Amino acid sequence: MPASTHRDPFADRLRGHAVPLTHLDPEAPLDDLEPLRDIIGDARVVAVGEHSHFIDEFALMRRRILRFLVERCGFTVLAFEYGFSEGFSLDAWGQGEGGDDELASHVAGAIPVGLDEPLHWIRRHNRTASQPVRFAGIDIPAAGGSLLPALTPVADYLRQIDPEALPAVQAAMRIAESFAGGSGAVAAPAWARLSTAEQDALSALLMRLLIRFRSVQPLYVSRGDQDGYDIADLRRARLETSGGAGPDRIRMQNSYVHTPVLDAFDGVLNTQASTVAADIRM
Quick one: a GO biological-process term for this protein (predicted)? Predict the structure, then answer.
């Protein structure tokens, strides 16, 4: 039987472009990753994915690529599939807040798979770096299971800036706590069991807070700073409640993840670490 003359375009492309990697040591020299530089070019955002979760080799390679992007290409933010609101606490730890063994105290729940070692590397790197690496969460709070990670920093902010508005956010938090869960799949049935009056009350409270934030923005900024106001801004809480305040992961994730990624990165870069690490004005 004659040999097949069929050529596989994918295999041909691999032969022409693939670069073999001989090791996965995160601490080893990075010269073998230099071919990535031409692919990256002048991009400001590089997405690092994986074929499957929970594969040790992929995690090791991500750590090597993170080092390469920071040390060789000048990237300054690690954005991760982690709650936007919860990310500020991890960023503060990465900037040096607390002790080296206190990462767990900055995390809402368990440390996400694949994040422990990169965060420890960022903290070590930032001790001597002239340009620190920041951390940003770019996903919905608590995997869509709770409004509390977003409302808690708003309450902290109002406690300092506008104590008169604090009871409203505390009332919203009490209702939100009644249906909070570890994910949208857990919280959605609990939300459905709430009375219509409670659902409407939560929506009304969040809208009242949003209106107050908008109407007195100059006063809030004068009492604190623009960064603190921007972080505490209730736009995302409002977006989560469009059409109802319950946990709808698809709608909520659209509100968060489809916000321009560059805007999120720029927001992190332009927020001083002390805003979240020392003053906790969120």
Answer: response to antibiotic
Whether residue 115 is predicted with pLDDT greater than 60 in this model: the reply is yes
Contacts (Cβ under 8 Å, ≥6 apart) of 29 = none
The values of phi and psi at residue 207, to 5°, are -65, -40
As to burial, measured by CB atoms within 10 angstroms (0-12 exposed, 13-18 middle, 19+ buried), residue 205 is buried
Can you tell me whether residue 78 is helix, strand or coil?
A: strand
Q: Output the six-digit token pair for 156.
A: 């902290």
Is the pTM higher than 0.70? The answer reads: yes
3-state secondary structure of 77: strand
Instruction: Write down the CATH number for the domain with range 23-142.
Output: 3.30.1870.10
Nearest-angstrom CA–CA distance, 186 and 181 = 5
Is the model's pLDDT at 252 over the cut of 70?
Answer: no
Give residue-wise pLDDT tens across range 141-174: 887 888 898 898 899 999 999 999 999 999 999 9
Q: Is 248 a residue whose pLDDT tops 80? A: no
The answer to whether residues 237 and 151 touch, using CB atoms and an 8 Å cutoff, is: yes
Q: What pLDDT is recorded for position 253?
A: 52
Q: What angle do CA 218, 261, 102 make, to 5 degrees?
A: 85
What does the DSSP assignment read for 79-142?
EEEEEHHHHHHHHHHHTT-S-TT-GGGGSSSSPPTTTHHHHHHHHHHHTT-SSPPEEEEEE-GG
